[in-house]
Input
Amino acid sequence: MLSLINFLQFGLADILDILLASLLFYLLFRWLRGTTAVNIFIGILLFYILWKLVVLFHMDLLSEILGQFLNVGLVALIVIFQPEIRKFFLYIGKSNPLRNIELMREKSEKYTEGQIEQIVRACKNMSSSKTGALIVFTKANPLDDIIQTGEAINSEISRELIETIFFKNTPLHDGALVIRDRKMVAARCILPVSQKDNIPSHLGLRHRASIGVTENTDCMTVIVSEQTGNISYCSGGVIHENVGDKGLREMLTKNFGA
Output
């Protein structure tokens, strides 16, 4: 009971401590947002809160078990978050970290009506000719690792170029086109394939890759089926099939339009 009373007696230093800790957790969440690591981060945070509550109410045996688990888990955290830790320190090492660290600023990707129309028309034409295509649109997660697997383009959004990239006889047609910051940044990119066992059998590898990359990041993907010509899109690991050019235009306008 005495511990609970002391717990409720906050001073200025305690308030400052809580505010700084909250800011730290917020920045960490912003940094990890859009990746699978954010779910691990939330799970660890909830586990830590549970441990503190157990200690507060003097559950000695349970607090000892949870405390030992957290101590051993620190090594595992370094392994789990190795890519994020590496990326964070790469940003810190740059000349102006306050400008370069992405967790200190919001990214805004607002596409013009003309850019959206270029994408829709390209997908409509490829649908008519049953030309397979897979286009990835980034959000908060820049997808640097995936972009590095492909061929750099760094071009303005163009219907003609999109159709040329996915034309069957071109060397860039096999893989994904990544569009980031309103630029076509890379083609022939390799995406992680979903391991879900409930994906319909009529969906091929292109669709599985589309589901896989949206399971692990906050990006959105558009797929044109080579077998049927159907236009589909994927978000959060969920595929929306056969939406047509009208549904595609609505999705792009809603998520990326100005």
Summary: The first helix runs from residue 2 to 8. The chain has eleven helices and seven strands.
